[in-house]
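Q: Sequence in, structure out?
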Amino acid sequence: EFGTPSRAEGELAWLQHAYAHTAHGGHLLVVMPASVAYRKAGRRIRADLVRRGVIRKIVALPGGVAASHALPVHLWLLRRPDDTGARPDTVTMVDLTSNDPDGPLDPEDGQTAEVPLIDLLDDDVDLTPALHMPVVRRDMAAEYEEARTELTAALAALESLLPDLCAGDGTDLWEGATVTIADLVRAGLVDLGEGGVRATGDQIDPDYLDGFLGAGPNIRRSTSQSGTYRPDPKSARIPQREPAVQRRYGSAFRALEAAEAQASRLTDTVRRMAQVAREGLGSGALQPGEGQRPDSSS
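A: Exactly. Output:
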């Protein structure tokens, strides 16, 4: 009815076969590969479908939704005109490609546009929804300033998390009295389960325990010559110290762990700020200020 498709456009042959069995005023929903919307060989058939007002809606789904393959697919909603011959003036385009394929595909989470038929009937007749979405103008300057503010706050937070450390007295903690984890397990002071080593009483500070398990000879003993790290909790040792001393060390180890986590977030913030800056500079939305520091290498 809309023309004989080429051998490369088998999907448009199937679509017309299904459409032939649709009653007047009836609807047809077909899953199509995304390429059908723009391939040059199907341009004439797509144009006729649009011109007659048969295509009512095209929904672009994210990759991975179709069980048979990971490529993105489209849903084409067609309607055979009723006896009145009334024809719509637009095609509804919905772009859900940025949605999580494993989550609910709510049109509210995507972009929707009512595209006039005349705008689709150009030389390409490209029916890809993303091509017809309204352009969202970003305030790159505001985004960059927001990222800089977040970066400044993240740097201040990182500095505040660093523990206050000073030079030691030269005593090697590992040359003094130490105790193995196996001995602590037998004494009922720690528990060795699937989750690792865990302190069970007040005599062992948990942060002190975790900190020394990942430091000093315990790391060297568990690292092979090839660099592979395989911890052996039972043979690991920790220095014997009074609970008050353990808490001081534990506090420092805990602060270091928090600082490392903050540094990871800081890296993400810097990366996002740089991405906004590059995109803004490349598009003309941002430009270097008058106070830009010269390149020290020149």
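The mean pLDDT is 86.
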